[in-house]
Amino acid sequence: MAQAYDEILLQGEAENPDSPCLPTEAKRGRKAKSKAQNLLARFSLYKTEILRFLYDPRVPFDNNQAERDIRMVKVKLKISGAFRTQEGAEQFARIRGFISTLRKQNLNLLQSLTQVTRGQFSFQL
């Protein structure tokens, strides 16, 4: 799979040679690159991170979990319009983050939340 990735990068480099995208009036500094050239550079630089999901099954293929984590905040804002206080917003975010972490670690939600209210919860390291 990594070989196919490298071949795609080489094809992209052939189709987007290093040439400045648009001439600018500024004569100092580096010449600006096109968006395609910048994307190719990032794909080349971060190859290990991009392909990490192939070698480590714990790494998800996509980044949808981050989007799912903030979805409830957006729903809450849509329903109520806003949080009444900054403190309330922080508490909501803290609780949602804790629940998300429990789910990611496959821990029992009800049992863990009960332990938290009793001051007995700790993550097992």
Protein structure class: mainly alpha
Roughly what fraction of the amino acids lie in strands? under 5%
Number of discrete helical segments: 7
Tell me the Rg in angstroms: 23 Å
Uncertain segments are none
Global shape: elongated
Mean pLDDT: 84
Largest sheet data: none
Q: Give the number of DSSP strands.
A: 0
Q: What helical percentage do the residues reach?
A: 55-70%
Descriptive notes:
It is elongated, with a radius of gyration of 23 Å. The mean pLDDT is 84. It folds into two domains: 2-55, no CATH class; 64-118. The protein is mostly helical. The chain has helices spanning 2-15, 35-45, 47-50, 52-55, 64-80, 86-104, 109-118. Helices cover 63% and strands 0% of the residues.
Short account of what is shown:
The protein has 7 helices and no strands. It is mostly helical. It has 2 domains: 2-55, no CATH class; 64-118.
Summary keywords:
0% strand; elongated; mainly alpha; 125 residues
Can you lay out the helices and strands and say which pair or pack?
Layout: H1 2-15, H2 35-45, H3 47-50, H4 52-55, H5 64-80, H6 86-104, H7 109-118
Helix pairs in contact: 1-2
